[in-house]
Design a protein that fits this description.
The protein is of the alpha+beta class and 617 residues long. It contains 18 helices and 28 strands. Strand 25 and strand 26 form a beta hairpin. The chain is globular and about 70 Å long.
Length: 617
Amino acid sequence: MENLYAQRISQIREMMRENGWDAVVLTGGDPHGSEYPAPRWKQVEWTSGFSGEAGDLVITLDHAGLWTDSRYFIQAAAQLEGTGIELHKMRVPGQVPIPEWLAGYPFLMAEDEETIRIAIDGLCFSVSAVREIMDAFSEEGGRKAEMISIPNLLSGLWKDRPEIPRTPILTLGEDLTGESREQKLTWLRKFLIRQDCDAILLSALDEIAWLLNVRGSDVEYNPVVISYLLVTLEGAEWYVRKGPAALDEETRDSFYEVHSDGISIKDYEDLELTLSGLGDIEQTDRICFDPSTLNEHIFRQLETNGLGAQLKEVSSPVPLRKAVKNRIEIEGMREAHLEDGLAMEKFLFWLEKAVASGEEIDEAAASDRLDAFRAGIPGYRGNSFQTISAFGEGAALPHYVTPRTGSALLRPKGLYLVDSGGQYLFGTTDITRTIPLGPCTELEKEDYTLVLKGHLALAKAVFPSGTAGCQIDALAREPLWQARRNFGHGTGHGVGFFLCVHEGPHDIRQNFNSQPLLPGMITSDEPGLYREGMHGVRHENLLLCCEDGKNEFGSWLRFETLTLCHFDTSILVPGLLDREETAFLNAYNERVFRALSPRLPSEIAGWLRGKTLPVAF
């Protein structure tokens, strides 16, 4: 019997023949450029079975390929088996990205034609992504590409496709955000004036949530509201689903608060009506938009109708402003990490005792217990991403998906990795700990120590103002490189304030990114090492970028570690950590004990005292 996903590929190819398309390209995104889409827009997963967070699919009449990066190579190979879909590896030497691949592919239907017809779901393809494909064909020469935008391209095949989510909405006060939506909108309007623009159309969900001080749960793990926001010099219109499912008492109050600040609330589907010039917003002279987040379908509506306006492309100023946390947000993030650290230590205490006693616990049960500890924290609003609970060889998958049934039992030996985080009204957390559950091999101990050595190198870094994350990424890799080892993912990502656990524009990775790290930015520090079929190691804390004084050589920056949870020192390889690294580790573990022990039950506090005793130099 033909594989389900192979059948779906066949159905798409039949649609291609009927319409004369040479290729269909499906992305893992949504109409708002989100990293994590709601189920309605998981088109790549529905078509291919691949459930990773990053993957794009290209289908021609004689080829189907999935493009993803090294975090998902093992997972993709397993999930694509039997589908007829080939894995295309990204971020490796010799990679061929989708635009260049399309430009060089010998299409069957178009081999005698000058124009390749490529169908996309224009709602889920950014303006920039479309241009990358068009540019690749221009550089290749000869043939041209015609991009055919079909909103909801798969709806005719995807019969049980989920609806657009519509969940309760809440507003956050200045006591949590440190800044009112009126202040934020005033700042954005000053940006418009500098750009000589009359309006800006925002579509990125975290940008809108931050700007309006609203939160929701339309996207799992991300407290955002599916919507668009049109801000003018005089007013603003928020296009949001506001049907009965959203109008609980809290949402009604939230809508009232937003509306009272001069923001008109419109139905989500009415944006195109406004862009046609038939809405009640005044005609504008110049609208700006960010092509990296605005989808192709809305762009074409804007280009065709556009309220009679000229269009100007800009990089949205919101991500950078949002990334630099204010004093109130930083205080909230410190509180979130204190509360989260208490939950983590309770979990680790329980885990150690349960495994040692011979209790049968699998990966899923361990994940559930950690969730339960976090759920007891006032202000908890769910996890910040799907917990990775992985024992042994499962941990060799950087983005392992813990099976709900049949997951691996935890044994009193080897390494267990748990990568998790919480969403709280006052902040967002993300932490990874690799825990020895019993005797470990010499290789496990060495890998564990080398990864921790890299983590510490970044955590204690001092660097000049103006330094970008890509310029210090090697600090976390150098100890591994010296041992001829490496990891394929980035070392650090930005983290939002009660928002997306991944945010830009800053990061710490090898890929070039010119954005400097600035005081107030929060980033993860998470080097790792993965041995397929054996084990995986990752150590992760969140770091706050802070000022560190000035001298005749310039201004200096450093990191403050926000995460509060001890590192297990029982399997460190003697001699691999130098005196300075050991002192930094000892000071961190002592800080964890002093911060958490007064609020832990006496039995757990005593256990933590033993876990945080200093390591000898």
